[in-house]
Specification:
mainly beta, Jelly Rolls, six-stranded antiparallel β-sheet, five-stranded antiparallel β-sheet, 2 helices, 13 strands, 40% strand, globular
């Protein structure tokens, strides 16, 4: 398993080893032992799985507030996405900086997103399946979002009119939110 630092503090791209032959492939997508050896200590308690039918679907930017905050290990198992994480930890040297990385069924890449980050993704293909492990259970009362196109963040999604849920269409701008990391 290869662990790649990004330009944002504590945000890592994970490249698992893929073993392939004429039958197909095998990959170890998560190893607590390998992560701890790299100094990354996460205990995941829930797996989530989403499906997006159309290319151009944007989900995010989401977070869980307060004690319900979640770290995530995300990957795309069908199709491809542009995955985005934004550091919202006010004490961080990379506060408000974001990273965008393509995750796909073909490249097997994953993104390890710590607590204190906004997270979202844009589907680059039709029929996308997206999986994520989280280290804290979902809490509906703590569920929050920030507008995907907030100019204060300046994320370059590469799309002007994505397909959005009503929740994401109506998400507040950062300066209107109650984000507290």
């Amino acid at each position: 398993m290869k662990i790649i630092k990004t330009d944002v503090l504590d945000l890592f791209i994970i490249e698992p080893k893929v073993f392939g032959d004429s039958r197909g492939w095998f990959v170890e997508s998560w190893s607590e032992k390998a992560m701890e050896k790299a100094g990354l200590h996460y205990h995941f308690v829930q797996d989530n799985h989403s499906f997006s039918a159309q290319k151009g679907t944007l989900r995010g930017l989401h977070y869980q507030k307060g004690d319900a905050a979640q770290a995530k290990l995300v990957r795309c198992t069908r199709g491809a996405v542009l995955d985005v994480a934004v550091d919202m930890r006010k004490s961080s040297s990379t506060y408000k900086k974001w990273v965008a990385v393509e995750l796909s069924a073909e490249n097997f890449r994953q993104l390890l997103v710590p607590r204190g980050f906004l997270h979202g993704f844009l589907t680059l293909t039709d029929n996308v399946e997206f999986l994520y492990k989280v280290d804290n259970y979902y809490n509906k009362e703590a569920d929050r979002g920030i507008r995907w196109d907030d100019p204060e963040l300046g994320i370059e999604w590469g799309i002007m009119n994505p397909i959005l849920s009503d929740k994401d269409k109506n998400a507040p701008y950062l300066h209107e939110s109650d984000i507290d990391f």
